[in-house]
Amino acid sequence: MPILHPIFIIIFLFLAFASYYEIFRLQKKQSIFMWIAGILIVIAVGLRINVGADYPVYKMLFTGFSLYTTYGDVWDKALFRPNTEEIEWIFVLLNKLVFDFGMPFYMVTLVMATIAVSLKFTAIYNNVAFPALAAFFYFMPIMFFEDSGQMRQGLGIAVCVASFKFIKERNLFMFLLCIYLALGFHKTSVAFLPAYWLVKIPMNQRRIFWVLVVSLLVSPLELYRFAGGLFGSLTPQDISGAYTGYLDDRYYGTEVETGLNDIVKIIFIIILIRYDKEGCDEVWWYEYMRNLAVFGMALFYFFRSNEIFAVRLPGAYMFFVTMFCMPNLVYAVRDRTRQILYMGFISYFVAMFFYFGKGNGNRGGFTSDRYQNALW
């Protein structure tokens, strides 16, 4: 059976140790755990060679950007001026700079991994009581899909997550600046724009339940189709064009398949609702995190009839479900409940390790027989 490369086994075992030690021995966060995990992940992700579902496409674009794109084109894209560039401007600029300095493509992935992991881990450490457990959620398996696969969206999500600092501070200018920069990496970052106001909506267990139920019930109506005109009038042409283009996409415009993903989400929803009061009482800013998590779940079910929308648009919000709310709820509860939640999450990580390894991990080249790294 295919199994993930030893570098990923080392990270997995380290995070298992770090999360347990942090929760049941120290009972407080330790920055050293995040530093070690972050460095290992940046090496594994940033210096990989021909690994990841989108790697061949990104590598092909690396040369294309540099030969056929000027810095003037990048500037026009950044200012939303008419241009022929289809890829987001900061990503294009990064590729062109690396190419013009004569460096290999893996320097692009290294810089991207460094930025993404730094922003995400900093936000986690500043907002999560047990950050090592949050890093475990990120590693298994978000890291493989975002920062080792859909790298542009992974960077967009990283900037959106970093903007949570300014949401808490109610600094609208800095929040909007973060959204602008996030759009420079991936168009779907525009979906995080309402976050600044969503955190202020009063919620409780009953409201969480009904928001998610209504989102699921209206999903077959495909109400999102009526938003094409709104996007066309309120967003730049390339964003609105991408939205309308995916409405009936041949490959991604179909309904999300029912499977393990649904079971996991249902479990997370049950935990969110059941321990909502404990989270609000024990964790600073938990209400803000929970609102964003609930909205991400609602987006997923609302767009369930269109796979690309259901997976991509809630991306930044879903980060708050697993990396913020779940670990903070482990902190909020006590004794036997904490042990049960922790062991449940660890069981999930172990199952995902083998499930992902023999599936997407094998196809993406993350297994011991296919993974390559610039260091070895």
Characterization of the model:
The protein is an all-alpha fold and 376 residues long. It has two domains: 1-149 and 352-371, no CATH class; 191-333, no CATH class. Helices cover 70% and strands 0% of the residues. It contains 21 helices and no strands. α2 (31-46) runs antiparallel to α6. It is globular and about 60 Å long. The two termini are 24 Å apart. The model has no long low-confidence stretch (mean pLDDT 90).
Tell me the layout of helices and strands.
Elements: H1 6-26, H2 31-46, H3 55-68, H4 71-78, H5 89-100, H6 106-127, H7 131-145, H8 151-162, H9 164-169, H10 172-183, H11 195-198, H12 205-218, H13 228-234, H14 237-245, H15 260-274, H16 276-282, H17 286-302, H18 307-312, H19 315-332, H20 335-358, H21 360-364
Helix fraction, binned, reads: over 70%
Distance from N terminus to C terminus (CA atoms, Å) equals 24 Å
Strand content: under 5%
Cα Rg:
20 Å
Largest sheet: none
Could you name the ranges where pLDDT drops below 50 across 5 or more consecutive residues? none
Q: So what's the overall shape?
A: globular
Mean pLDDT: 90
| Structure summary, number of beta strands | 0
| N to C succession of SSEs | HHHHHHHHHHHHHHHHHHHHH
Number of domains: 2
Overall structural class, as computed from helix and strand content, comes to mainly alpha
Tally the helices.
Answer: 21
What is the structure about, briefly put?
By secondary structure, the chain is mainly alpha-helical. It has 21 helices and no strands. The protein has two domains: 1-149 and 352-371, no CATH class; 191-333, no CATH class.
